[in-house]
Each structure stands twice: as structure tokens, then as C-alpha cells.
Amino acid sequence: MLSLSTIGLMVSGCAIVLLMPGPTNTLLAAAGLRQGVRRCAHLTAAELAGYLVSITLWGLCFTHASHSLSWLPNVLRVASSLYLAWLALRLWFTANSIETSAKGVVSARTLFSATVLNPKAILFAGSIFPPAAFASVMTWLQAMAIFAVLLIPIGLTWIAIGAAPRNGRAPFIRPALFQRCASVVVGAFSVSLMWALAH
């Protein structure tokens, strides 16, 4: 079972990364803009299924590799930190693209595929989920339950952000501004990962 401190770190890390704009969240926002919250709420189940598959496969891969390659976890954390820094810059400079991304109906199959291929899964499996989550079925179930409790409301939030202009509600919520704020948070998370490695 996971300790309270491990759960706290996992919750904060997962929440930050799930809130970051990316391929899956952009699709959720686009679906909300196109179809509204009620008709898109089921897409969070496709997102969860995609992450369950991808995180589990990456986690098992990293767990088995780290037994013979003890340096792999640290290299992975450095790579994750660099990826987050790159993503923060990319998010800042492409903030307006989310507002023009609703070009068609987003299906559950499309969202599942995008999530399975989402690089965030590598970050979850290699840096945020504790290694114990991939060593025991009970610990895996506990970690995935925590992840699901975070993912569903955050996924619905992204759908609602996309739907807000469509409904004429919350005109002050601009996806581009939200993405720029997220880019600052992502950059801070990248620095914190590097700081933890250095100390």
C-alpha cells in the first residue's frame, strides 16, 4: 500500500500534468466547443482507458529495465524535466491554437488513441507514479483509483472550458489565457523535478 506522503506527491504531480494542455485536453476542449458538456462527458472514460493502458505498459517496462539499469530512473526524470520545459515553451507560443481546433466531432476511439500515444503517460509512469504501483496488483489498483478520481473532474473541466464560449457563459475564461497560465505551471514543475534530482 502507498504511504500518505507518496499519495500526496502523486496527487500533486498527477493533477499538475493532467491540467496541462496537450493532445488529449485539446481534443476534450474541442469536443466541448463543438458538442457541449453533456454530450461529451463520456469522453473522460475513453481518456481514462487510454491512460490505464499506456501508463501500465510504460510502468512495467521501466520497472523491469531499472533492475538491470539502475541509472534509468534518474535519466528518465531528467528527460521528463526537459520535456516539460520544452512543453511549457510550446504551450506559451501556441496558446491561440486551442481556440481554432474544433474541426469536427471527436469520437471516443479518437480520444482513446490520442491518449494511448500521449507522451504524458511516460511522465506518469516514469516520474510521478511510485515504482511500487507496478510491483503489486493491489498497489496498482490503489494508484489507478487515485488517478481516476483526479482525471474525471479535470477532463470534465477541459470539456467545460471548451464549451464555455459556445454556451455564452464565463466569457472571461479564454482558453489561450488558460494555456499561458498552464505553461507557467508546467515550467515550474520542470524546475522542481530538476531541483529534486540535484538535492
What do you see in this structure?
- The structure is a single chain.
- With 199 residues, this protein is mostly helical.
- Helix content is 77%, strand content 0%.
- It has 9 helices and no strands.
- Helix 1 (4-19) packs antiparallel against helix 9.
- The model has no long low-confidence stretch (mean pLDDT 82).
List the helices and strands and how they pair.
Elements: H1 4-19, H2 23-35, H3 37-40, H4 43-68, H5 72-93, H6 108-116, H7 120-128, H8 137-167, H9 175-198
Helix pairs in contact: 1-8, 1-9, 2-8, 4-6, 4-7, 4-8, 5-7, 5-9
Strand segment count: 0
Question: How large is the share of residues in beta strands?
Answer: under 5%
* Principal-axes shape call: globular
Q: Note the run of SSEs as H and E.
A: HHHHHHHHH
Report how far the terminal alpha carbons are from each other: 27 Å
Uncertain runs: none
- Helix count equals 9
- Mean of residue pLDDT values: 82
Number of domains: 1
What Rg do the Cα atoms give?
17 Å
The major pleated sheet works out as:
none
Q: What structural category do the secondary elements indicate?
A: mainly alpha
Structure described in brief:
This protein is mainly alpha-helical and 199 residues long. Helix content is 77%, strand content 0%. The protein has one domain (4-198).
